[in-house]
Design brief:
Helix content: 25-40%
CATH topology: Purple Acid Phosphatase, chain A, domain 2
Bound molecules: fe (ii) ion
CATH architecture: 4-Layer Sandwich
CATH class: Alpha Beta
Radius of gyration: 19 Å
Order of helices and strands: EHHHEHEHHEEEEHHEHHEEEEEEE
Largest sheet: 7 strands, mixed
Number of domains: 1
Length: 328
């Protein structure tokens, strides 16, 4: 049998002679909410938004976000060509959480390439944003093959793109600082215009796009809820994606694993969320796990799978992703 490392894969688009045909696999993790309060000065927390987050944590910590689940999910997810993480990697944007999350992702990167985008919990306070803590810690996972399209945002250079075999993995930043009890996301005109230019580039256009964003690009909730917790300019994003014939739009934030099909001018997109990677729940749509997507040599989406923690809490089992009849 051919060793994987000994032969070039066919999904190099140009299809090298004698290449080994195999699926290009992307593992999708989201909402890790890595916790670490080491070295925190609690008095300082009393005067900012973190106190509400910490109170929430005290009520639920250890019961809702389980480190043992996260370890098991990550260990299974690394069996892929690329691991994408759609935000809320930390819980309160604490430096100790960033350090713990970076160590975790460095471990993942020893097995598979890693791409990340920020969630609202990674930009928890205005100071975190302005001091650029997200790119400070995660620059290694924000590389772009076409950096001329990236805008210099406080959350890092977005949009970025990684051209890998049959896919173009595109990272967007929807995380912006908000007052307490508001977690809505925003892409902004500049980032969306850059995304439109990026999608038109020949090397992107000939591949299957896999768009990463934290906030939901489709949202059937009441408008008032969307304004508080959704993606404020989701309609503009959907318009920008209208020229794609196929692809994936991957997100997190809602902590519920669902999928739907979004029609475009030339075909449709699969819009899929992952649940929280450490969440304990008896509901399979919420329970800790990850999704995995397979692409054949021509960029066709050949498989969409979800895996959740099994009842023993040690291993994972396959589960279905709830499909919504309509995205909107
Ligand atoms: Fe989250
Ligand atoms: Fe979130």
């Amino acid at each position: 049998m051919l060793e994987r490392s000994a032969v070039q894969p066919c999904h190099a688009i140009e299809k090298p002679k004698g290449c080994l045909s195999q699926l290009f696999r992307i593992a999708h993790l989201s909402d890790l909410h890595v916790l670490s309060a080491a070295g925190v000065e609690w008095r300082r927390m009393l005067f900012n938004k973190r106190i509400t987050g910490y109170a929430n944590l005290l009520l639920h910590r250890g019961r809702v976000y389980r480190r043992d689940y996260l370890r098991a999910v990550v260990a299974a997810a690394v069996q892929a060509d690329h691991v994408v993480v759609t935000g809320d990697i930390t819980n309160l944007s604490l430096e100790s959480e960033y350090d713990a999350a970076r160590a975790l992702l460095d471990g993942v990167a020893r097995s598979a390439e890693v791409s990340v985008v920020p969630g609202n919990h990674d930009i928890y306070l205005p100071a975190i944003h302005h001091e650029r803590r997200f790119p400070h810690h995660f620059a290694a996972f924000l590389h772009s093959d076409l950096p001329q399209f990236a805008r210099d945002l406080p959350a890092g250079p977005f949009p970025y793109v990684k051209l890998r075999g049959p896919v173009a993995i595109i990272g967007l930043s929807s995380a912006v600082p908000r007052p307490p009890f508001v977690s809505a996301g925003y892409l902004g005109h500049a980032q969306l215009a850059a995304l439109a230019d990026l999608l038109a580039h020949a090397e992107v256009a000939r591949r299957t796009s896999v768009v990463l964003i934290h906030h939901p690009p489709v949202d059937a909730r009441w408008p008032i809820v969307r304004l508080r917790d959704g993606l404020v300019d989701a309609a503009s994003l959907r318009r920008t994606l209208q020229g794609l014939a196929r692809g994936l739009v991957l997100y997190g934030h809602t902590h519920v694993r669902v999928r739907c099909r979004l029609p475009t001018a030339f075909g449709s997109l699969d819009v899929i969320s992952a649940s929280g990677a450490a969440l304990d729940s008896s509901d399979d749509a919420v329970r800790a796990g990850f999704n995995r997507y397979g692409f054949d040599d021509d960029g066709r989406i050949a498989s969409v799978e979800a895996h959740v923690i099994d009842p023993s809490g040690q291993g994972l089992r396959a589960t279905a992703i709830t499909e919504r009849r309509s995205c909107l």
